[in-house]
Design a protein that fits this description.
alpha/beta, five-stranded parallel β-sheet, globular, binds 3-acetylpyridine adenine dinucleotide
Length: 487
């Protein structure tokens, strides 16, 4: 049973199918597949990771329209791959999972949905992503606001900013994509920034026909491009891992680009970040900073005091009248699959097992939760790279885990607590001295600041760590006599 029909869940289903697992079901809360690319439909929504890397290794496309594909193109790619590899037929849409419970007697998972349906499975893969539950700040007076208000990832189909007075709260990766589009349309656009960002260029023009033709017909060019982008992403990671040395190059590069783009000294002062390069996600856009300097756009760094029926009151007690408020305020990233309840051995809740912070061996397996696997789990996010690459590694690792269990006739496979504890200690130690620990970000949990989202190293290290599952790191439960495995 796989929960979530985004890139991670579908990729895992395809991996399992290709290796002979036939009894697979994918439960998807939404009305369609696509995960993040189904939900996020804001204007100019696109991926800032080049498509030659941000795509499955086994389903490379040669006809991407530009280096970083728009959302519609990615969604149609996902649908096409799901069809080609027979994963679409495994999906039950409109099934929002509320709970997964491990039943000791049957050695099976019982999965329940919010509408009262239940399923049984020998193994469960939770692929609900880190960036799914919108985080909307509680602003005083928000409920009185008379205009439209919504989160960037829940963009209403009917909404048009044309001629309107619009506020965007937040200036992260989502906001910087949609703000240039709104700046074109809105009568007034107020951008509320809490923290500045480091930027690198991304023009993202459509490929000219000769580039498309070259990628299509020159043997090896596609693979070379993927390899090149892979190395580029690893370089970004090296800058984050070594802020005092390589990070200075990233800083200088970004600062030079930003200085060129930010001609207005007041906007430059306000937009400039006050933390080391790479601590938060470096943002790729050649259009955002120019948009901030348009006459109809105002960058506001004073905190919001409250909302009124007519607009927003800023710290200095001045009011801006508004027709719409857009919360580009990110996601509840520390919650992972919550509010879904996951109960493992002895009825222990994953929430309680994670009281000190979410953690999983290689981001995938948790002691006390037999045959439960996570895709894009704790410490598997990347600040420079393609999450699909990580998810593919996870899918292959999960397939190996199930094969090991199957080969032994085991009822469950569970990581040894000492293995998980040691790998967690080692992983956390690797953050010391990196840029990730130099400021606050969504990668960290509040309180102790533990980094729960990100992998501390390179893509190649994650690939190597997951290439071959070591069965000695796992315990295999004896199976009760009964029918074959469903994953
Ligand atoms: O969310 P974010 P996002 N008052 O958390 C601000 C991926 N992604 O949806 O920096 C005022 O990055 C917050 O301020 P601060 C990517 O991994 C990928 O933009 O916390 N402001 C920040 O500016 C990305 O990292 C693509 O001080 C408040 C913003 O809201 C992740 O998704 C594209 C606030 C939130 O930024 C999330 O991006 C888009 C408050 N109370 C997204 N609370 C690709 O192209 C928060 N903020 C691959």
């Amino acid at each position: 049973m796989i929960i979530g029909a985004g890139l991670g869940g579908l990729g895992t289903a395809i991996e399992l199918r290709r290796h002979g697992f036939r009894e697979l079901t994918i439960l998807e809360k939404a009305a369609a597949i696509g995960g993040t690319w189904h939900y996020n439909r804001y204007p100019l929504c696109a991926c800032d990771v080049p498509s030659h890397l941000y795509s499955y290794s086994f389903a490379q496309r040669r006809d991407w329209s530009r280096i970083c594909s728009p959302r519609e193109e990615i969604l149609s790619y996902i649908e096409q791959v799901a069809r080609d590899y027979g994963a679409d037929g495994l999906v039950q849409t409109g099934a929002e999972v509320s709970a997964c419970r491990w039943d000791e007697t049957s050695s099976r998972w019982s999965v329940a949905s919010t509408d009262g349906r239940t399923w049984e499975a020998d193994a469960v893969v939770i692929a609900t992503g880190q960036l799914h539950q919108p985080a909307i700040p509680r602003l005083d007076g928000a409920e009185q606001f008379a205009g439209e208000a919504f989160h960037s990832s829940r963009w209403p189909e009917h909404f048009s900013a044309r001629g309107k007075r619009v506020a965007v709260i937040g200036t992260g990766a989502s906001a910087i994509q949609l703000i240039p589009a709104l700046a074109d349309e809105a009568a007034r656009l107020y951008v509320f920034q809490r923290t500045g960002n480091w930027f690198l260029p991304r023009r993202n023009r459509a490929y000219p026909p000769w580039v498309k033709a070259a990628v299509r017909y020159v043997p090896g060019l596609q693979a070379w491009r993927r390899r090149f982008i892979y190395q580029y992403a690893e370089t970004l990671t090296s800058m984050i891992r070594h802020p005092r040395t390589l990070g200075r190059i990233g800083h200088a590069w970004s600062a030079a680009f930003m200085r060129r783009q930010l001609r207005d000294p007041e906007v430059r002062r306000k937009a400039w970040p006050d933390y080391p390069f790479g601590c938060k996600r470096v943002l790729f856009s050649s259009h955002y900073l120019p948009a901030l300097q348009r006459p109809n756009v105002e960058l506001i760094t004073e905190p919001i005091s409250h909302l009124t029926p007519a607009g927003v009151v800023i710290g200095d007690a001045t009011e801006r009248e508004l027709d719409a408020v857009i919360y580009a305020t990110g996601f509840r990233t520390n919650d992972f699959m919550a509010p879904m309840e996951v109960l493992g051995r002895d009825g222990v809740a994953l929430r309680d097992a994670w009281a000190g912070g979410p953690r999983a061996h290689l981001g995938i397996t948790v002691p006390g939760f037999p045959s439960l696997f996570l895709i894009y789990g704790p410490n598997t996010n990347t600040s420079g790279g393609s999450i699909i690459l990580y998810e593919e590694c996870q899918g292959r690792y999960i397939r190996q885990a199930l094969e090991h269990a199957w080969a032994r006739g085991a009822a469950g496979i569970e990581v040894k607590p000492e293995v998980a504890a040691a790998s967690d200690r080692e992983l956390q130690a690797r953050f010391a001295g990196t840029a990730w620990v130099a400021c606050n970000s969504w990668y960290r949990q509040s309180g102790d600041g533990r980094i729960v989202a990100n992998w501390p190293g390179y893509m190649r290290e994650y690939e190597a760590a997951l290439a071959r599952l070591d069965p000695h790191e796992y315990e295999f439960a004896r199976a009760p006599a009964r029918a074959p495995v469903e994953a």
